[in-house]
Amino acid sequence: MPQLWKAAHARGFPLDNRPQVKPLPCSSIADGSLIIDPFAKVYKCWELVGLIEHAVGTVNPDGSLIKTAVYNDVLERNPVTIEPCREHAYLPSCGCGCVCKAQGQSGTYHAPGCGTEKFLLVDKVRAYLERLDGAEGSTISINNLELELIEGRQRPKMSHCYVLV
Ligand code: SF4
Ligand code: SF4
User: Fold this and answer.
1) Domain ranges in the chain?
2) Which ligand lies nearest to the CA atom of residue 79 in the structure?
């Protein structure tokens, strides 16, 4: 990934990979994020589609949702009750990681799902500082493109799926 960031940056793509505050690790843990399979079963994580034990409900013909116990179990995931996450300095940027990984590794949604932030956060900071070092003022010029260095506070943001990034 760091090589890819550098290559993208060198070609003029805007890049802001500073650590960001992520109240939610991914869409799977957002209340309104649902995946409906062809059998009307509802899931929250696309990696878990088809695994009936992870279905959070079924859509009725009238459009209503009959929830399973899994629905609240996923949404009640709380990083401050998960021991390694509660004390981890990366938590604000990580949000407790991937729910699917937590299940796969620990058999529960209420466990760490360490993903890209754990393994790439240092590289993200390094890449950002390298760009700052090479810059004069608030803009840099690459291949006739004027790029503005992004400063200031990051807005809270939801991560993309950890599996994809
Ligand atoms: S990196 Fe791992 S241990 Fe740290 S907050 Fe994220 S999921 Fe928890
Ligand atoms: S990050 Fe993990 S929990 Fe979220 S959608 Fe991707 S696989 Fe599912």
Assistant:
1) 15-163
2) 1
Q: Give the position of tokens 């006739």.
A: 144
pTM attached to this predicted model: 0.79
Report CA-CA distances (Å) from 136 to 37, 97, 111: 52, 36, 44
Please state, in angstroms and rounded to a whole number, the distance separating the CA atoms of residues 65 and 57: 6
Q: Mutual orientation of helices 116-133 and 2-10 as an angle, nearest 10°?
A: 40
CA distance 60 to 108: 28
Stronger pLDDT, 36 or 152, i.e. the higher one: 36
The 10s digit of each residue's pLDDT in 123-164 is 988 887 777 655 555 666 767 766 666 666 666 665 556 554
45: Cβ below 6 Å to ligand 2?
yes
Distance of CA 88 from the midpoint of ligand 1 (Å): 6
Give the ligand with the smallest distance to the CA of 44.
2
User: How far does CA 12 lie from the centroid of its chain?
Assistant: 25
Report the SS3 class of residue 148: strand
- pLDDT at residue 150 in the model: 62
What residue's CA is closest to ligand 1, atom 2? 114
* Statement: residue 91 has pLDDT above 70: yes
Q: Is 157 helix (H, G, I), strand (E, B) or coil?
A: coil
